[in-house]
Design a protein that fits this description.
alpha/beta; Purple Acid Phosphatase, chain A, domain 2; 2 domains; 6-stranded mixed β-sheet; 19% strand; binds zinc ion
Amino acid sequence: MVLPSRFFKNFYAEKVNEIGCVYDELRLPCCGPLRCAPLFCRRAERTLIVKKHMKRNSILLTALLVIVVATLLVYGVFSASGTPPSDLSEMSGGASPGAASEIGSTGSSQAPSDLPSESSGGASGTVAPGETRISFLACPDNIIHPSVYYDAIRKAAQADGSTPVYTSLATGKYDFADMYEYVADAIRDADISYVNVETLIGGNDNKISGYPMFNTPEQAGEQLIALGFDIYNLAHNHMLDSNSDEYLINCNRFFESRGLTTLGYYKDQADVSNIKIIEHEGVKIAFLAYTYSTNGLSLQAGSSTVIPYISESLITQQMELAKAQADLVFVSMHWGDEDRYEVNAQQRSTAQLLVDLGADVIIGMHPHVIQEMKWVEREDGGRCLLTYSLGNFISGMQDGFNMLGGMLAFDIVRSADGTCSIESPQFLPVVTHYTKETAVSGDDTGHRNYKIYPLEMYTEELAAQHGVQIWDQTHTPTLVGGAFTVENLKRTVKTYIPAEFLADWLQ
Ligand SMILES: [Zn+2]
């Protein structure tokens, strides 16, 4: 796995506070001038923290180990002689095997290789007997505006010392990896990860383009695959950007031909009954996806493709099929009003329909800003984790509030009795950073140095350098609180996302 459970996040935060920033000492390339970010550089950090604590607590550790070894020896002797283990705690002064495992669960007295797997974490940090825990991560709108792919061309040229060529987009060399550097671990470590491919990979044989009818370079799609995403959502308002289903079919093939799961494309009416199900460690999760619109574009005459527009009949039909075939049902919803923090009537009524039909998780997106997140109780006794909008993941958009998005993380838990549930949901805020430079063509805003930062790593220094500051001089600032600052980014998150879904550093 590894999205850290709340337990681990708290533990790391606590230890980092205690020992100071670990990055100066480690010289981690991802941290540079940034302040501590315990969540996103956790492997190296965990190793260091454990080593530090082992050193500091070596005397205590030695004493504990002696007690544990002695206990185990006594246990072996008495087990062999038939003495019940219940007698052990008294005989070993209380350091029973149970106590030893409790010490281990804090991580402070274990070698790094023995640390409990975070995939078996959850709120308690332990897995109950017979329980299965699977980590899930959803990343929202991945929008590749021209400034984003021009930046990737420049980064590739910088890397090999050549002059960037912005005119041969189909055959150009791109480097998108740097943009995702600080979120790559979280994506790779999740057992199941999802991304909304808002701009289709329509094929490099077609003209590469940006707003309003996007065709994103295949190299950008290759980057998403390299990051390790498992599920690629194609149900959104840009599904028909080729003014036909051509880009959609090409994009679907691009991912499916590599053995990956796509959502939202149905080749014909019969295909609508084929529910996408991911099975992981025996847990079956059905995925459905809908969009409110395709920007006024329609399928070409004669096409058999079905677009999953939001409709009560289609949702009801597919939810019934999904519920019958899977343990859990997750629904990707493309809905809402762009650039509006407020949830609209269609979002509320459709969410209620999905809850009534038994949805377990609703992954909302499209407004390009974050919106409300909450648990909704279901009549069947279960509950649905509802996110109305996770905002943007990466984009070339201009306003301050478009720079703020969130990754949705939680554990999928199957208990010993076979019931499945969603636990430890967290909203992990991210910021799309860029600087304002010189445009190279008419469709270019000149934004460069794109990078997705976990908000936890983002500094006031970076915020002051953000290209949006120039934009804000001629436009009304859009974050809660106004100006584009870390304080106002945090304030915006805390305004729309309840504290129960946020890490301690945001409380
Ligand atoms: Zn959209």
